[in-house]
Amino acid sequence: AKTQERNTFRFYTPLMHADARMRLMLGADLRQALIRDEFHLVFQPSVELRSGRIVAVEALIRWRHPERGELMPDEFIPLAESLGLIRRLDAWTMRAVCNQIRAWDQAKLPPIRVAVNASAATFGHPGFLDSVKQALQASGISPKRVLFEITESAILRLGEATEQTMHALHALGIGIAIDDFGTGYSSLAYLKLSGIDYLKIDRSFVTDLPDSANDVAIVEAMLAIAKSLGMCTIAEGIETAAQHEFLLRAGCAEGQGYYYSRGLPPVEIERMLSPNPRHEPS
Ligand code: C2E
Ligand code: CA
Ligand code: CA
Ligand code: CA
Question: What residue stretches are annotated with the EAL domain (predicted)?
């Protein structure tokens, strides 16, 4: 749908008036929300395909709007980006993730990885590295537990500075994943940059597996590239057993999607990871 939007001439309609007004109002609310702390995180498991074990979770932000109820990132992340608020939002996420990891460690849960999404403006900002170090220091967690997800298009937009940032994060021990891999309409040259640990195959290539011969060919090629570059692979948007089976057989390492689980509140993640699951009082 996004490609279509980009290439289609759009006429100005009364509906867009409403849309603009809505964005304005929501923009004002967004500033308030940062002050009032109206955000929370859900965590979607990432499963090792071979064993079915949860090896990681991805932090996904949600906004509990006082009037509009729970808002999804698609409804406010682009707005936060255009209003210059995304760095503060991503910093909130990073702090919340570090605190969550510390809490899980204290509860003696298995030390899984936690993936954090970072927008281009966040990742490309000169202060990013320091804010990451600060969040790690304040929480005392190991950098090895954190993985940043950067979209392919963000990396391309950022250019030069990206390389240094990725290098520095890598040196700290923080993992880096290329998110939405394959959707950036790019050359593959950036894959030579050091510090990329994971390729995340975009959902658009997974949806029609295993029926679409084209998608089968594309995904197999992506897995081959990752393998030869020594990167780990995660497929996103797995919804069916057939998709799971195909990806497992094709050699993909990990998968995420509704087939395994949606994004869950921390207590449910704890229940899933707990070595001796406690029974619910009935
Ligand atoms: P993403 O990084 O590609 O995250 C995956 C999205 O796909 C999530 O949507 C997830 O709920 C959804 N998803 C997972 N499995 C399935 C599936 O099997 N089928 C379908 N149809 N969808 C699935 P969500 O939570 O709405 O997040 C949307 C996007 O918002 C994310 O896309 C990410 O780019 C962005 N985002 C989320 N949290 C943050 C954040 O803290 N900071 C920034 N900058 N961006 C964030
Ligand atoms: Ca992501
Ligand atoms: Ca993704
Ligand atoms: Ca995606």
Answer: 23-277
